[in-house]
Amino acid sequence: MMKIVIIGAVAAGTSAAAKARRNDEEAQIIIFEKDVDISYSGCGLPYYIGGIVKRRDEIVPRNTDYFKRKYNVDIFTRREVLNIDALGKKLTVKNLITDEVFLEDFDKLVIATGASAVVPNIPGVDKSNVFYLRNVQSADRIKDFINKNNPKKAVIVGSGFIGLEMTENLKELGIDVTIVELAPQVMPAMDKDMALYIEKYLIEKDINLVLADSVAAIEGEFPSTKVILSSGNKIETDFVIVAVGIKPNIKLAQNAGIEIGETGAIKVNKKMLTSTKYIYACGDCAESYSCLTGQNMYRPLGSTANKTGRIVGESLNGGSLEFRGILGTGIFKVFDKVIAYTGLSEKEALKEGYEIVICHNIKPDKAMYYGGQEMIIKGVADKNTGRLLGIQIVGTSGVDKRIDVFVTAITFGAKAEDLSHLDLAYAPPFSTAKDPVMYTGMILENEINRDKNK
Amino acid sequence: MMKIVIIGAVAAGTSAAAKARRNDEEAQIIIFEKDVDISYSGCGLPYYIGGIVKRRDEIVPRNTDYFKRKYNVDIFTRREVLNIDALGKKLTVKNLITDEVFLEDFDKLVIATGASAVVPNIPGVDKSNVFYLRNVQSADRIKDFINKNNPKKAVIVGSGFIGLEMTENLKELGIDVTIVELAPQVMPAMDKDMALYIEKYLIEKDINLVLADSVAAIEGEFPSTKVILSSGNKIETDFVIVAVGIKPNIKLAQNAGIEIGETGAIKVNKKMLTSTKYIYACGDCAESYSCLTGQNMYRPLGSTANKTGRIVGESLNGGSLEFRGILGTGIFKVFDKVIAYTGLSEKEALKEGYEIVICHNIKPDKAMYYGGQEMIIKGVADKNTGRLLGIQIVGTSGVDKRIDVFVTAITFGAKAEDLSHLDLAYAPPFSTAKDPVMYTGMILENEINRDKNK
Q: If we measure between CA atoms, which residue out of A231, A217, A15 comes closest to residue A110?
């Protein structure tokens, strides 16, 4: 009987366990989780803080009993793995409740240690009114602070999707929000021209934007906290949320001699196997790769954690399932706007050395007489092959549909000219007779042909 | 200078004209249209009758001036083409306003004569309170009847998407609706098991369903009209809408010796050329084909009319664009339910001789804590190749997204096993970490593997 030990019981670890159990009824499967919560929806935390999600158990719907009952998987929470003895196939584990330290052996090990918020190295980041959003407890702390202190002003450091989701949720609670972003634009992952639409909208929603500046220090305790910027400007605030990115938790793996990839995450092959042949890694601690360029990437997301966890579950039992990489798809809403992207941005495509054409296509998501609302689609295609490389969309409704159609098309190697032929579903409440996806393909195709005819 | 004459100025004819003009600034382009309205949204007519679309010009946004100004295309309405002299390259045209008959020559001809409602051969179908929905004037007539007579009861004959869209729109006007359907299920294009969900829902919405029965006669004038069914049952009603299908308008082409396809529509090649080498056909009068099976099909829809019109526009100028066929995608809403389908149903796949696996997958469209609502996805895949063949969905929100992702995947030849690898956009307001599309792929894959292991 194989003994599988998994470190981490959030998305990837529990996916791996569930899939491993489906493939092998006999194996012993154990998960150690440092945290108190398991299998929670990290992506739902901004909405839990904002009160759209009413109950904590909606974000943490499953407990250890559920996994025992449904999958015969033993999950032990508050157990921190201190060390991996890769050669001896043993873990040193600390029971954080009793402080007891014990050894646990394994036949196969799965590292699903996730990622942590990046903590900038500046004075004041450890103050009690400076928060990071990562696990449910970190969300509880923000919620508690808001409930107890009824704050009026917040500074959010970072304008990636978590920063912007938090912006919406805090503003909806009546809190005045200032965003501080190091880059000269919000959403640095997107092209500047698309970020401008988001910036304009945030200003309309009375969000204070401080771009091309950074936090030098945080001074004073609540209620007299000041954020000191590198520019010398100061912002009075009641609390600060730092959302400047997350980094993979690789220390355990690194100490065990497991290879770390160029992106800083744990290097894995397509079966999610690490450099040690009976140790797997999945989820936010593992390196990913682009199915478009083949390049290694680090884009930790819940959807990818689920995928890679499932692949580990297969691999543990000798399955042939392989990870096919990601496109780097993302989507989020901020108030009534929806922002989505997949594949390469213009700047990324140029950096990769592609000769490209681009288009900006403004079209309603459905028939105007049925309440259609315009979205802006930026498309990037390879000038030489015609291949679609990337899409960025800013819109209101129907953005999630278009990005997923583009994702699917790009995954299958679609050329710009393929899009206008798609037999997409048309009825006035859902789209236009020529869908925005099709127009995007037609415009890119025209750009390519124009360039060829020069 | 080439002289292009087009018969028909709705979706296909005007698309052909616009594209032809973009490719050739010199050509003379003329369109003859029998109707008074041009370039209207046929798919929007049920919502015009229901009052969701407030103004007639929202459905008919462009007039002949627009086409003259923007494309230098001359559109003559109320001009009926009586005859095509294919060899002599001449049309006989009647001016329906003056009754004058004249000849018009052409270099290239485009037949975009559309389709007509099927009129059953039963007594009473010509009564003034029996309606068909096809062009804007037919919608005007229904609207006028309702406004003048304030009817309380309607019988809709046929339960395809037009019948069901009319059901919603009449019911929302406070009219009691009875649907009479010849088949033993609603939406005969779909599988019975999926139609059952729709039937259950229609009954919940207080729609009277009469299945496996047909209209034998319509007796009496308003307000004492009775629909006599083949079963002998009688339904008292204020008016009747007949929506039992549409048939291509092929008479002109047929009389000119142009070949008609096996489906009864005008036979065309991939450049939309008919059997006569300078005469093209596009839109609802032309035959289509399945990009899945290669078989000829007749599925007249506005989206396809736009596509085939555009291809004609290219072909007229010697372009290489070819029609790639359709999947037979459809979508419509009835009250709060959305129904969509693409590719082959189970019954169609079996008829085509495929060995198949199927699945029924019930999943929420987004995170439950963000208001997710379940949809039922029926998937059909080829047991031997794993290829995805068809999808049917009944749900509430997010159905249009999933069907379009499936359309794109099927178009590119996706296998069931490909779906779980898609890097679809995930955030709680839009989807679940494993999207319903991915689950569908996984379940079909399991079915295929189970069958293999038998």
A: A15
The pTM assigned to this predicted structure is: 0.97
Span B119-162, pLDDT tens digits:
999 999 999 999 999 999 999 999 999 999 999 999 999 999 99
How many CB pairs below 8 A link A and B?
202
DSSP annotation of B217: E
Q: How crowded is residue A25: how many other Cβ atoms within 10 Å of its Cβ? A: 7
The answer to whether the Cβ–Cβ distance between A428 and B330 falls below 8 Å is no
Q: Out of B43, B340, B414, whose CB is closest to A412?
A: B414
- B14, B336, B401, B423: best mutation site toward chain A, by most A Cβ within 10 Å? B423
In a domain, A167, yes or no: yes
This complex has an ipTM of 0.97
Q: B309 with B258, same domain?
A: yes
Same domain (yes/no): A368, A277: no
d(CA A202, CA A159) in angstroms, rounded, equals: 11
Q: Which of A437, A439, A27 is nearest to B400 (CA)?
A: A437
Strand order in the sheet with A234-237: A215-219, A225-229, A234-237
- Domain residue limits at A71: 3-39+58-115+247-315
Domain boundary among A244, A276, A296: A244
Residue A196 backbone dihedrals phi, psi, to 5 degrees: -60, -40
Ramachandran angles phi, psi of A141, nearest 5°: -65, -40
Q: What is the mean pLDDT of each run of 10 residues along chain A (454 residues)?
A: 97 97 96 96 95 94 96 98 98 98 98 97 96 96 97 98 97 98 97 98 98 98 96 98 97 98 98 97 98 95 96 94 97 98 98 97 96 97 98 98 98 98 98 97 95 70
Question: Is A43 in the active site?
Answer: yes
* A326:B423 CB<8 A: yes
Closest of B336, B365, B367 to residue B197, by C-alpha? B336
Q: Within 10 Å of residue A209's Cβ, how many Cβ atoms?
A: 18
In a domain, A322, yes or no: no
Query: Residue B266 and residue A237: Cα distance in Å, rounded?
Result: 71
- Cβ separation B428–A370 shorter than 8 A: no
For position B438, which CATH number holds? 3.50.50.60
